[in-house]
Amino acid sequence: MVLVRIVLVLLIPGVLPNSAPMFPFPPSAHDCVEAHRMCSTDPQCEALYRGVELCAADTAVNPLGEQAASECLERQDTLLAKYPSLLVCKCQRGFRKEERCLRIYWRVRLLPGKDELEISPYDDTLIDSRMASLVAASSFMQLDGENQCLKAAQDCGLYEKCGSLRSEYVLACTKPMPGTSRCNQHKCHRALRRFLERVPEEYSLGVLFCPCSNNLCGERRRKTIVPSCSYQEMEGLQPNCLYQQSFCRRDDLCRSRLADFLSNCQPSHLTASGCLKDSTGLCLRAYAGLIGTIMTPNYISNSSADVSLWCNCEGSGNQWQECLRLQRLFTHNTCLRNSISWMGSPSSLPSETTQPPAPRPSPLVQEDELLSNNHLPELTNDVVESEEEEELTQTVEEEGDEGGQFDIIPLYSEKATVSNLGSSGTGAGASVTTNPTEPVLLLLLLLSASLCWG
Q1: CA dist., res. 384 & res. 178, Å (int)
Q2: Are 127 and 282 in contact (CB under 8 A)?
Q3: Mean pLDDT of the region 114-140
Q4: ∠ CA(222), CA(228), CA(229), 5° rounding?
């Protein structure tokens, strides 16, 4: 009965379990919330953690002095040396305690280096196994002339949770604040994150990455996240990309989503997907995770799938190259470009998801299929039969010309004739004469004999 219910859920479009968050996994043994809970049972660990937390609060207000920074780092090293579970712990996207988990993750990393800022705080060991949902979503997105973004929006509307949460973020992103013509970008971002975290990705990523072949479809795709509020500033002025990044890294959630993107969308020319981790699914999820933060990316036009941040590198000074590198991770990223294109190209799916060709059906099955589709090739069969008949006729004529006879299996009525019974033992009894007068003579003889006996 349970199996039947699962099959029905998978077969009926638009029907999904009510509790279907984007990443619905229970906390693992390396979850930071669980690691902190274990730490809090030990007074020494709890005291060290509180000290590190105070250091983090001071750092958020003003940069620490040399002596204060040295003391804080010593406290941090002692904590992590005695309780390494706090160092190796990770978090889950969309988890109810995600923000609390991320706060713990970053508190024990007081002054993270550049490498640490590009390591994802999220646990992806289980998530990569859910590639099937992305394959299912992409398999219906083909450039067949239909507006795929309109279709994706309609599919979202048919699923209650997707439709209601989509309406919620559209309202939050279009409703002006009292007394102004500006939207509340903070509420808009929060509603967008809620949509992406709570709606199954078959729908949420479907409306984000739907493939387009015309500008009308491209415009719908570009406006999916209400970019006038979520993406660009009301004044239309672009901030510096490094300033945007530094502001993002002051917030635990934004810093985590950026680190996740930098980790999972790192390009590489050594893999078929163009991604260092060779997973387009992880890159798509990481990109979607940035939507609803200050570093929300979006499509730059209606005529292409190119994306960018709403920022530039003007005024970067001697950090121009670093700024350009950050900008190009969106505008010239092979991994990200291939991942977005993959959603609309089922033919380019990873090789492990490619199904083997179906076995060739028997002639009877093929005939049934042809009949059911009204495609029975009658004319072709007629041609084949006529060719065979013509070939057989030519053979008969040629053999008749040579000896006046040809070998066949005699018909049942011919076995009882007197001519067969009266054949010689030389093998002539196996042959049948072609003289048409013999049956008539036999008939006359039989009639005369019957009259004589009568």
Answers
A1: 82
A2: yes
A3: 68
A4: 115
